[in-house]
From TrEMBL:
The lineage of its organism: Eukaryota, Fungi, Fungi incertae sedis, Mucoromycota, Glomeromycotina. It comes from Rhizophagus irregularis (strain DAOM 181602 / DAOM 197198 / MUCL 43194). InterPro entries: BACK (IPR011705), BTB-POZ/Galectin-3-binding (IPR051481), BTB/POZ_dom (IPR000210), SKP1/BTB/POZ_sf (IPR011333). This is BTB/POZ domain-containing protein. It comes from the Eukaryota.
Length: 423
């Protein structure tokens, strides 16, 4: 007979950390004036962290009164407190942390070579994407982008900003965005803003970079124009001027023609005035954001996947036992269509929804079905309701719409359960 006393051991180690019994390591974390002192046991640190194992095995490590002395100014003290508890107990609560605290834990865990905790925290941040970046998009972008180990999170942040650009562009801190990050964002083809909105935000950012600029451009002298041109020079080629209407160009771009090259101005004039004129400038073509009515497919399809998984759980005891494996096929289907493919289309989105419904509910194999020729339900009317509810998701804004969808889905699920399964 064997028993698991893991929880008792964890509690004992937590008390050891709390009471600081026989500690022999003093750790100074943070920078002045926010330096905190922590006490720990070298044997536990060496066992739990590659970082501490390397430091504590060094013969030249600093000692004072028989205690090992470790200093690290790159880690936030509050984050280290949570991580130190994790090293002793194997437990850490990140669900109650805000965006900044999560990033600090992520940075600290990487610094301390805690690969499992780093991965867990990064995945949690991405999973909670609807809250991420909201409070301090500029600060978080800077924190994430300048750390090479956060490649996955970097791309996630950029995709989220392109999906919901107002998170960044409507922020009071947008004007503090470093030029290098703004350049990266403006190069994106999936930035979900009209080109004239991008231009207006670029102008807003540029004006804020020099305090002496008069907001009324007609009062500028040539020196002002030259300074402003220097600020925005590397961003001008990133604007798709061909996508700006002649009316918007006249009202919102023409006042700033002083910062544009004569060649570019002449090109834009020809484009709008000469029928059939073929563009010759601008290396960047039109942006191809496909969000709009179908939202961000990669995120919304996951919502559908999670909702349908709840239905599968309820059907586990149903005679159609093969349904247990459907989740695998759905995952593969989503991965192939939406991760490998370089573009997303409304038709593919309809297609995926129809395939999933038919496979889970109707016993159909995953075969191509025309989205314009929806097959009639093979089971009673509740399934027709499911079709309608899933298609409603296509026209709902992601953050608000999914709440409505879940509510409608709950009503349908109860109806389906009583009509089909419970009878």
């Amino acid at each position: 007979m064997s028993r698991n006393f893991e929880s008792e051991i964890s509690k004992a180690f937590e008390q050891l950390l709390k009471n600081e019994t026989d500690y022999n390591v003093i750790i100074y974390i943070g920078e002045e004036p926010n330096i905190k002192e922590f006490h720990a046991h070298h044997i536990i640190l060496r066992c739990r962290s590659e970082y501490f194992n390397k430091i504590l095995s060094d013969e030249n490590i600093k000692k004072k009164d028989g205690n090992y002395i470790i200093e690290n100014s790159n880690i936030d003290p509050q984050s280290f407190k949570s991580i130190l508890k994790y090293l002793y107990t194997g437990h850490i609560n990140i669900t109650n942390k805000n965006e900044t605290e999560l990033l600090n834990i992520l940075i600290a865990s990487d610094e301390l070579k805690l690969k499992r905790l780093t991965k867990l925290t990064e995945e949690f941040i991405i999973e909670k994407h609807h809250q991420f970046l909201q409070n301090d998009p500029v600060g978080i972008l800077q924190t994430v982008y300048y750390r090479k180990f956060l490649v996955k999170l970097q791309e996630f942040c950029l995709e989220l900003i392109c999906y919901k650009p107002k998170i960044l562009f409507n922020s009071d801190k947008f004007i503090n965005l470093p030029a290098s990050l703004l350049e990266i964002i403006l190069k994106r083809d999936d930035l979900n803003l009209s080109e004239i909105e991008i231009w207006e935000n670029l102008i807003k950012w540029g004006l804020s970079q020099e305090q002496e600029f008069n907001q009324e451009i007609f009062q500028w002298n040539q020196d002002d124009i030259n300074i402003f041109k220097g600020i925005l020079q590397k961003f001008i080629p990133l604007i798709r001027f061909y996508e700006i209407s002649s009316e918007d160009y006249y009202n919102k771009v023409k006042p700033y023609e002083g910062i544009l090259s004569k060649e570019l101005i002449d090109e834009i004039l020809k484009f709008h005035m000469v029928p059939g004129y073929r563009r010759t400038l601008n290396i960047y073509g039109p942006r191809h954001s496909n969000y709009g009515i179908i939202n961000n497919i990669r995120y919304d399809i996951i919502i559908i996947y999670l909702i349908l998984r709840q239905l599968i759980v309820k059907l586990l005891n149903h005679p159609r036992s093969h349904i247990n494996y459907s989740i695998i096929f759905i995952t593969i289907r989503i991965y192939i269509n939406y991760e490998i493919s370089s573009f997303f289309s409304k038709m593919k989105y309809y297609q995926a929804i129809i395939d999933i419904i038919n496979f889970i509910i109707f016993d159909d194999e995953i075969n191509p079905i025309s989205p314009l020729e929806l097959p009639p339900p093979k089971l009673p009317s509740p399934h027709l309701v499911l079709y309608i509810l899933l298609l409603i998701l296509l026209i709902l804004d992601y953050f608000d719409g999914v709440i409505v969808f879940k509510t409608l889905y709950s009503i349908w699920a109860c109806f389906f359960y009583h009509r089909i399964i419970a009878r």
